Known about the structure:
The chain is α+β, with helices and mostly antiparallel strands. 67% of the residues lie in helices and 11% in strands.
Amino acid sequence: MRRARAGWGLWLALWLAPGAWAQPLPSLADALEAAWQRAAVSAEAAGQLRRAQAEQAVASALWAAPPALELGRQQDRQAANSTRREHEIGLNLPLWLPGQRAARQAQVQADLQAASAASLAARLRLAGVLREAASALALQQAELDSAEAQLRSFEALARDVERRVAAGELARADALAAQAERLAAVNALAQTRQRQQAAELRWFALTGLNSVAAPEAAPADTHAAGPAHPALRLAALRVQAARERLQVAEGARREAPRLIVKASQELAASTPHTNGVGLALRIPFATADRNAPLLAAALSELDLAQALEREQQLQLEAELASAQLAQAAARQQLADERARAQLLRERAGLLETAFQAGETGLPELLRALSAATQAQAAVARAQAALVQAASRLLQAQGVLP
């Protein structure tokens, strides 16, 4: 299957081409949705949400555990022709301890919120992968455009040198040098195309889309990763869920008490049938050796969740500061590369005029043309790097496409 060339150069070309409005490029949000449907992490997030919903149903139940049915039968032979039989049926009902059901429901609600936040955080991580893949495509497209421009330049120069050699104005050695530079440009273009195809294949594997997403708008500057960041929100909700689990452990210092309802019937050959109904309440004792491990596990989970939240906050603040510095540096580098490319283009133009007039040699012109094309390639790379820096800043800010 033939795929359209990806990258920001392609985006601009398609945007300006006739009929481009009829087939707009997908947005990064579209690409993220396509990638999410293909990613294993989406199934994991859905599984976490289903587990939390199942726990919610359990916490909303009338009983602390599933009820149990008790059946009993006893037979006694009292004499040669006298047998006594007793049948018993009972219902064992686990009861909630005071406050235990409310605590369990609060814990399940916190788990549900954490599961939803985990799905959002996973989407953000996947968006970061897509942003890097799109940036790689943009960079490779810039390299490809530069390699094609360099090849065109050396092909035109080789044709001109061949013409002047045929006219006797230049030596055959000059034609050989021009052809060698052209072949080097052909080889460089082939290698660049191979790298671009590899980037296209990675994008297709991630999204299943044949074209890269349109570039995002540049982010606004911020100075701190706020609580709206999906990763920070997830860390905070995990702390809350750990607190709720600690409340459940503290409120469940004993096994659930059980209400037992029994009905019995006694049958004997020489006496009337006897029926009876009884109630029993089973209350387990609270012991330290049962509850201490549960409390220790809940406290350890809470301590770990709080430590992870602090670590996440520091890490995101560092990533945000680094992304802001990288964007400023990329912007300055682009301005410097543009100025340098302008100077080298002017120099190459002057040397080409001098070469046509026979005032300078071919080697010096070849070096000037190579430097000018490399400088233009550096501009394209700097432009792609600025787009990449903007995408990384959006990622550090926790902005979803």
